[in-house]
Amino acid sequence: MLEHFNKAFESKARLGIMSVLIVNESLSFNALKDLLQLTDGNLATHLRALEEQGYVSVQKQFIGRKPNTTYAATDDGRTAFTQHLNTLEAFIRSGTFQETK
After folding, report:
1. Which letter, b or e, does each residue of 45-81 get, where b requires 16 or more Cβ atoms within 10 Å of its Cβ?
2. DSSP annotation of 38
3. Among residues 58, 64, 66, 1, which one has the least CA distance to residue 26?
4. Do 9 and 83 contact (CB within 8 A), yes or no?
5. Is the four-CA dihedral 70, 57, 52, 37 of positive or negative sign?
6. CB 54 within 8 A of CB 67
7. pLDDT, tens digit, for every residue of 4-40?
8. Half-sphere exposure of 54 (CA within 13 A, CB side)
9. Position 16 in a domain
């Protein structure tokens, strides 16, 4: 039943990152940090892990003289995250984790 449970999304931070990026075309590092209330280091670590999996893309550019880094969910990331959520929903609906009395 849990064949599509994806360990890449098991942390609260990564669930949050992917949830936000699924509903937004892209977001800046600072916007993600503010929305998810994560530290720079914590957010950077989780984003790097998702990028290494191919689930998040990164675009670095300058706006005027200021660097701006934006993140977006990739097609693979959207597919993997949707499968993960569907697997969790099916698991919850199955009730196989409930105690028997």
Report:
1. ebbebbeebebbbeeeeeeeeeeeebbbbbeebeebb
2. -
3. 58
4. no
5. positive
6. no
7. 688 899 899 999 999 999 999 999 999 999 999 999 9
8. 4
9. yes
pLDDT tens for residues 66-97? 888 999 999 999 999 999 999 989 888 887 66
**The two three-digit tokens of residue 8, written as one number:** 């890449």
How many structural domains is the chain composed of? 1
Strand blocks (E) in the chain: 27-28, 56-63, 66-73
Whether 87 contacts 3, CB under 8 Å: yes
> Six-digit token pair at 74?
């990739």
User: What is the pTM assigned to this prediction?
Assistant: 0.85
SS3 27: strand
Residue at 4 is within a domain: no
Establish if 5 belongs to a structural domain.
no
